[in-house]
Amino acid sequence: MMRKFLIYVLFIAGSSWALSSVIAWSFETLFLAKTESQVNYKLSRFYDFNDDVLFLGSSRAEQSFMVDTIFKGDHAYNYGLVGTGNWLWPKLLEDAVANDKPELILINVDPDSLDHGTEWNMSYYLDVPHHSTVFSALKFTTRRRIRFFPFKYFGQYIELFRTGIKQWKNSTSYDNKGTNISIKPPNPASFFNQDMAKDSVLLCKEDDLQILSEILLKNNQDMVVFIKLPSYQEKGYKIFFNQLEHRLEGVAFTYFLDYTGELSNKSNWNDHLHLNLDGATKFSKMLRRDLQLAADSNLIHIPSSVQFHSFN
Fold first, then answer.
1. Which of 44, 156, 206, 292 sits at a 20 to 30 Å CA gap from 12?
2. Whole-angstrom Cα distance, residue 229 to residue 274?
């Protein structure tokens, strides 16, 4: 009797699993096409490796680099992700270097050291290839939950509704090619958090710098530009950025741009660390100018398909 009961239970469980698989697959096929509004879109797009210019970094990258202000065409994209700090971009850099495709990679280096930042949002990684550096670096619990079939699709069910709402009513931000900048009036209280204004004075662990150096020493075709973005009323500390520049001195295909002290007027900022739309536009024009000058001086090389927007 017990054996028959177990067989019955297993049959019901197996049938339910198979039916849910069919329903979930049908739902994904019909309704879950990739759109830029989905949380997991950026990393899904990244691993297609179709872009010639990659912007990497945290929320500061997402809210500072206006792609269409800097480059022409459709093969440049902003892969900055909120909350990831300096945790994610070294892993993405390693995967980009290994893809055998020449790219221009521009990286926002956050003030703190390389261990600053987290995975932040599990939904970012739903479609990340399991053989990638990024997936391997995720916490075991995160990898397990991503592999678990129901989580992936239930997570995307929720994402479908969030995406729909965002697409139907997107009146609070500038959203284009991965760049997302709030256009709401800033909260005055956000300018009183002085801890956000100053750069970290902590040195990065040598082991982390060594890993990054080894990644870049394997690179023989991607141009990697490290960028220190400005902050509002920053204290001028640049210890980590300077340490990074010194550690990578002489490594081929690397270049550094430092914008400390730029755009100091409060009218350019949403808070101490994030530019508003006007500030991001000004900064992107500055970056375009400096990249163009560096390219003209043979300090950096860019893929032949990449074109800068003209100065205005």
1. 156
2. 10
